[in-house]
Amino acid sequence: MKRKIFLALGGNIGNAVEIFDKALEYLEQKKVKICRRSSCAVTTPVDCPAGTPDFYNMAVEAETELEPFELLDLTQSTEVLFGRPTAHGFHESRTLDLDIIYMENVRLCTERLTLPHPRAVERDFVMRFLLELDPDAFSKVKKVPLLTPCPAPMEGVMTHALIKTAQDEKLCSEFLTPFLRVSKHVPKEKEFRKFLAPYKNTRVTLQLMGNSAGLLAESAAAAAKFDIAGINLNFGCPSGQVLRHNGGGAMLKNPPLMREICRAVRNRCPNLPLSVKMRMGFENISEYENFSPDWSANCNDAPDFFILHSRSVKEGYLPVSETEHVARSRKFISLVSQPVILNGDINDVSTAYSRLTECGGASFMTGRGWLKNPYLFRKFVKGDTSPVLLEEKILFYKKVLENAKMLGTPYHRGKQIELSQLMFAPDNPFFPELFLKKS
């Protein structure tokens, strides 16, 4: 898949202009087609030691079929080839600095690579050259409110013990709560405190569910007094009980009410990030086309980002191929201006990377995939695609049970069976033992 990219070049040792020319010639030999170059000019060093010589800087627009980490490997090896030491400080003088600033339809946040470049918009010595190439460069590389990859909320499964174990093992830094149903009254302070207690010392977004704009807005305002990262509105749950009460996915049948709810929550909590968790539609996967294009990021009823499960409500959890997930997500993303967090059937790091790069998703979320590989998010951030070891999973499972006992909420046999099946099926090493236990 060919993508447009922006690269920034800098250097202050040797003949920078000649080095830039040769480096770009080398990139063209390595499947990076240089389409346009900006001017090259002298810039004043920023955040460098006193006495650092002035830099030369420029930018290029290019095209490549390389994947993000393949391109990163190439840019780093090119720097070394043209005289920059492998081990170097970020504020030192150098022969060549070659940064990936933007890659079309790619958003990543890992230890090795973050795209768009997280500091590009703050650097005049980058933006002045990008703007020569593209007047819309700011909109392409601007910072957006993103979630780091995190577990999808699973009602009844996301227990205090499970959350504590994930925290203890530093497996993820962010959580989205299961939905807190708001139907007849605004939850009291003690209800919020109890509901949010398992997430203490984490960055947590509170998920609310209901169909009353007034009640949801007041509930969001009450919750804003607690240490939460944002409010999420559940417009996607396919549970029959939820649908019978016109909540969750049933909201997709009433787009004007969804927007009314968003507007009411936004007005009551203008400084709190607002997101929507939804599906492609209620009856079929094309329904979003009827309202998503008008859900503009420039109006006060728009969420800051979407969390998209790429099935319809009626599909429930029926099998969907990875090709179909990609096609559906890509269409949705093309119609909205906000970032989209991808959800649904992401069970390993490789799938997460390919789904994000092929669709242009801002991040991803997974529930069952995380339980099958509790180390998935940590591996993703490190760019580690190796499979999880069975021994690691067993250790995690046992730690959850230990924490449950310590917290005074031990897992009964049915709960142990549920967790072990989610983590180990179809080859569950604990299944025979659990079924042989006496009631």
Count of extended strands = 15
Mean pLDDT reading: 89
Main sheet record: 8 strands, parallel
Using the coordinates above, name the CATH class of the largest domain. Alpha Beta
Shape verdict = globular
What's the helical proportion of residues?
Answer: 25-40%
Catalogue the unreliable spans: none
CATH superfamily of the largest domain: Aldolase class I
N- and C-termini, Cα separation: 56 Å
Number of domains: 3
CATH T-level fold name of the largest domain: TIM Barrel
Structural class: alpha/beta
Cα Rg = 24 Å
Strand content: 15-25%
Number of helices: 16
Indicate the CATH architecture of the largest domain.
Alpha-Beta Barrel
> What's the arrangement of strands in the largest beta sheet?
8-15-14-13-12-11-10-9
